Amino acid sequence: MSPSHVLEPTYQSLRQLLLENTWPPGTRLETVRLADLLHVSATPVRDSLNRLLGERLVDFVPGMGFHVPRLSEAGFRELLACQLALLRVALAGDIGPEQRAPDPSLSTEPQMCEHEVLLGVAAAFGANRELHAVLSHVSLRLEPARSAERILFSDTSDELSKINVLLSAGDRNGLEARLALYHYRRSEAAARIIARLERG
């Protein structure tokens, strides 16, 4: 196992590259090349890839190694449906008196805005830690597709702003309707989103 002061930055760098859709789905993730890219030895890269495999952010095929996951239309729709179901469970909770909506304009990582806002919904309505962890996991698996969504949809920032306004107001019914629309739109455009994602 690599020392933590080497492993953690390597893991974070690889994770970010994957979430940014740096490589097209199906791309083989070669340990030596990644080590050269990140200026580290092969060991922390291998350890990081195994950790990312556990998070299902990379795939592993025996005899072929690690690869960027390939998401099908059906798989994409299943993740969307799972995410919406988790958000609906979160909305059934009690609003925490000191919780407020995260402001995506304050994020230092613009590509993570949707992830932060959706987790903010769960946090604001008092979702338990396990639900929050599962929602985070599902949302991160959808993150590479969001790069394609931002190309296909010109109003993703406006979508987030509307969710944030409803969240700030504690409008449970409005949020449920807005989140349903958010997920329906992406489910209907699944073929276009996956095609764009495949192009990298």
Automatic annotation (TrEMBL):
Pfam families: GntR. SUPFAM superfamilies: Winged helix' DNA-binding domain. Residues 4-71 form the HTH gntR-type domain. One of its GO terms (molecular function) is DNA binding. Keywords: DNA-binding, Transcription, Transcription regulation. Gene3D superfamilies: Winged helix-like DNA-binding domain superfamily/Winged helix DNA-binding domain. Coiled coil: none annotated. InterPro entries: Tscrpt_reg_HTH_GntR, WH-like_DNA-bd_sf, WH_DNA-bd_sf. The keyword Transcription regulation applies. The keyword Secreted does not apply. PANTHER family: HTH-TYPE TRANSCRIPTIONAL REGULATOR MCBR, TRANSCRIPTIONAL REGULATOR, GNTR FAMILY. This is DNA-binding GntR family transcriptional regulator. The lineage of its organism: Bacteria, Pseudomonadati, Pseudomonadota, Alphaproteobacteria, Sphingomonadales.
